[in-house]
Write a structure and sequence with these properties.
about 180 residues, alpha+beta, two-stranded antiparallel ribbon, 7 helices, about 20% strand
């Protein structure tokens, strides 16, 4: 039986709620890690057991989810909720900001006659590029709120939160002064 028929289409159940419920059930028997023994010491090792995302997108198609960090302290419901919300839109937006806001990362441009390329931005010290990326990443994740509206559990809500707030890392939208002076 297809998961959509089983969990979606019921009264007052939207697609994201159905997908979350499907992932909760799948996570009950799924393991992202395998145990290894080295000299009598047991430790977790990442297994190559991804889960297919139940909701494919137009531009990404069918996606598989790999867990690179230890998520054993999360409940299946919390992990399923995070997995349903996984998409590439935030990354695409972040990379677009990098190209627009940090000139040293801008791609080489063709000249007006299109016979040569201008490498005006290609000569830079990578150390300063890393500093600039760290500042932009921190700003993007903790200072810049993003608007979204999504049906959650049958309720339409419009929110303007930073990525860190969406993940539950903080309840506050920070300013650049907060970040620079650690307030």
């Amino acid at each position: 039986m297809d998961w959509g028929q089983k969990y979606y289409g019921r009264k007052n159940v939207n697609l994201y709620t159905a997908a979350r419920k499907f992932l909760e059930i799948k996570l009950a028997s799924h393991n992202f890690y395998k145990w290894s023994n080295v000299n009598g010491v047991r430790f977790k090792k990442k297994a190559t057991t991804p889960i297919n995302h139940p909701i494919p997108t137009i531009d990404e198609g069918i996606r598989s989810i790999h867990c690179l960090t230890d998520v054993s302290d999360l409940s299946n419901r919390d992990l399923a909720t995070a997995m349903v919300n996984v998409n590439q839109q935030v990354l695409k937006s972040f990379f677009g900001q990098i190209h627009r806001r940090i000139s040293i990362f801008e791609r080489p441009l063709l000249t007006a006659r299109r016979d040569r390329k201008s490498y005006i931005y290609a000569n830079f010290n990578p150390k300063y590029g890393q500093y600039a990326l760290t500042i932009l990443r921190t700003y993007h994740n903790f200072c810049q709120p993003w608007s979204s509206s999504r049906d959650r559990d049958g309720k339409k809500e419009a929110t303007k939160l930073t990525p860190a707030q969406r993940l539950g890392l903080t309840e506050k939208t920070f300013t650049m002064k907060d970040i620079i002076y650690f307030k």
